[in-house]
Request: fold
Amino acid sequence: MTVSALPSNYTPAPTLLHDRVILVTGAGAGIGRCAAITFARHGATVILCGRTVAKLESVYDEILASGGPEPAIHPLCLEGATETHYRELAEQVTDQFGRLDGLLHNAALLGERTSLANYGAASWARVLQVNVTAEFLLTKALLPALRQATEASVLFTSSGVGREGRAFWGAYAVSKFAVEGMSQVLAAELERTSRIRVNCINPGATRTAMRAAAYPAEDPATLKTPADLMPAYLYLMGPDSRGVTGQSFDAQR
Ligand code: NDP
Reply:
């Protein structure tokens, strides 16, 4: 798989995402939390999607306190949600905003860190449901709203283990390969028939709860923070990457 290069020393304009409506999944913690706050700081109205309402409320408060546009909160558990839940979410987005300019697929489950020989079937199904099937269903439901935008950006979140298989990464690695594939399929389908761009980003090792769970012996102070990644996320979500679609990027060099 080819990994495309991001512009070096990208400096986003303070109003880069002014008037844009962007939905972020897993907006309550880690990279998603930081992305939601950063998008709002650059002018976006953010729809905070996640499974823990208290965490989403804390992000909501932080955005308002910093003078950002009032976000919307949409609680959704990607493990249990059905097509009806996604349809309801899409209806709310259309009723409230009339369009969707950006969609960041960020939420994911790590699952077990064990061999395929020992991997539990139930755990396998959960990881693929949250990391792959939910992203398909959410995208499908939101496509009409994305089509209403003058230009829209869909960003999937991959991983190094979604590009080269590694022992003991199980369903998580398989799910991230699937995410890369879904991003390519969707980008190809939409390239000539819409103004929707679709790309994939690999955050790289980042100081979050997921990383700590995967590498408990690692010193978190040695890792990049979610804030360090934000120029890449802003570039791909905003108009400076206009015309870029069907590509996969590393947020860290
Ligand atoms: P975190 O575990 O810190 O955050 C994950 C987020 O996803 C949380 O907000 C969590 O909600 C949410 N989430 C998990 N399950 C569900 C669910 N069933 N329904 C709704 N929301 C759910 O992870 P990171 O911030 O580290 O990861 C963000 C993305 O980056 C993921 O796609 C991950 O695979 C990818 N990534 C991360 C790397 C890293 O080093 N951190 C490296 C490579 C890729 P809650 O807080 O309520 O549990």
